[in-house]
Amino acid sequence: MMSTEIWSVNSFSIGCDGSESRFIHFTGRTSKTFSGGLNQLHVKSKDIKHFCPKTKDRCCIAEYYEKYLAALGNRGPFYRRPLAGSSIRYGEQAVGINKLKGFMREITSKAGLQGNFTNHSGKRSCATQLYTAGIPEQEIMSRTGHRTETAVRKYKRSSNEILHEVSDVLNPPMKKEKPGNALLGK
Length: 186
What we know:
Helix content is 38%, strand content 13%. By secondary structure, the chain is α+β, with helices and mostly antiparallel strands. The strands form 2 sheets. Strands 1-2-3 form a 3-stranded antiparallel beta sheet, with helices on one face. A two-stranded antiparallel ribbon has the order 4-5. Keywords: DNA recombination.
């Protein structure tokens, strides 16, 4: 089964929690590394809930998903080819794996970004940003799909801010002035 066939419109739902926060909920069936068998009985499917910001000055990703899912007729494969024309319409056929792999490069190029961007570099940036924000490893793993701490730790990147914090902790303590030195100018 190709990874584009794993994701269907039914994998996504949009809702509100008790505090009126909108969210998008993704429930995955399997992943590219899931082959089944007894050694993978403990492997759980992805189950991610992403909340929209409560403030109106930030975009709510659930609104974009709502529009996209409606344009897909709320059924069928999630990744589909757009149809020509000015309205937002999609065909019934799923996008192939090779086309899907090239989306990140195409999107970043159209946005005028310089560099070699891939789906993996997006995943790496996501993990790095979450680490920098102080998000616990277990939550990062749930978003990136890594099963071990060792695998997800490869994405850690130090920022200057983090390096300064480390240096501040490891630097020697401030010099204490000796009682007579202040008067002697030493």
